[in-house]
Amino acid sequence: MTVRPVAQALRDAGLRPTRQRLSVLQSLRDRPDAVTAQDLHAELRGAGASIGLTTVYRTLTALADAGLLDVFTRDSEQAFRRCGTVHHHHLVCETCNKVEELSAAEVEDWVHHAADRHGFEVTGHRADIFGICSECR
Amino acid sequence: MTVRPVAQALRDAGLRPTRQRLSVLQSLRDRPDAVTAQDLHAELRGAGASIGLTTVYRTLTALADAGLLDVFTRDSEQAFRRCGTVHHHHLVCETCNKVEELSAAEVEDWVHHAADRHGFEVTGHRADIFGICSECR
DNA sequence: GCGCCAGTTGATAATGATTGTCAAGAGCAT
DNA sequence: ATGCTCTTGACAATCATTATCAACTGGCGC
Fold first, then answer.
1. Beta carbon pairs, A and B, within 8 Å
2. Where do the domains of chain B lie?
3. I need a labelling partner for B50 at 20 to 30 A (CA). Which of A8, A62, A69, B78 fits?
């Protein structure tokens, strides 16, 4: 009952539901924090899974392109996290990397007004908040 | 009359105003777009300046730490741009990399309200808009 | 003016995340 | 089952960035 929807999500993204992709998506599914390709690879290997580093990179990138994952830049590497498909912003804990999704009409309004004032045609925007969550304090 | 204030800015940041640092800060001063260390190094060399790549990296990082430059992540490398010292947001042209600074009380309000609602202690935030400027359209 | 020395520089090597390669392996429609 | 295309993964290659370390220099005290 948990494998089915994951496999479907992959199909919807035009990706074959292979054993490796399922294990990546599966471990991302129940995780509140963002993780790097390197770390996820080590974790999966540690848990006994057989998957190559290259595949982890490819899978994460493909899932992000399909809009199933958000990408963050942490230090000089990128971290991924499962995310909803509608537009949203983030509240990130700098200690445990937990990420909460936020929606915000206020931000959207600001984006368009500010861009209009400067004669820009909006192609995208990003608004994230960083902090320490209640558990980490 | 343009060298003096630049040198002073360096002193204020606790950095000796050396020939190399002056040339970096100087070329950043009259530039509306964000530039990477690699590109800036090539440019300075091309203009006849004598400066090492390592020094360009160190100088840009030091100036960013001192709050004189903003850092952007473009593809997988970081680009720098001179900036004001008060908190602000950005409007970035994805074609020519021109950057305009914005201030926005709306965003600050949203940040604190959203963080409070989730029990986070705010340590920082970032809100940038991407688009195409009027000249590039 | 001069020497001193902590702060700087820069050629080069090292690092480390990410991507390219390509032969072997695995879904899935027929 | 068979074939064909999509995937995989060990390994090599990239490439931005950082570490090294000996040579250099700004500027303060004399």
1. 101
2. 3-82, 89-131
3. B78
Band (pLDDT 50/70/90 cuts) for residue A4 is low
Domain B89-131 has CATH 3.90.78.10: no
Query: pLDDT tens digits, residue range A63-78?
Result: 999 999 999 999 889 9
Is residue B127 less than 8 Å (CB to CB) from chain A?
yes
CB-based contact (8 Å) between B96 and chain A? no
Fold equal for B3-82 and B89-131: no
Please say whether the structural domain A3-82 has been given the CATH code 1.10.10.10.
yes
Cα(A16)–Cα(B113) distance, rounded to whole angstroms? 42
Task: Please give the order of strands across the beta sheet that includes B35-36.
Answer: B35-36, B77-82, B69-74
Q: What is the pLDDT of residues A100-125, one digit of tens each?
A: 999 999 999 999 999 999 999 999 99
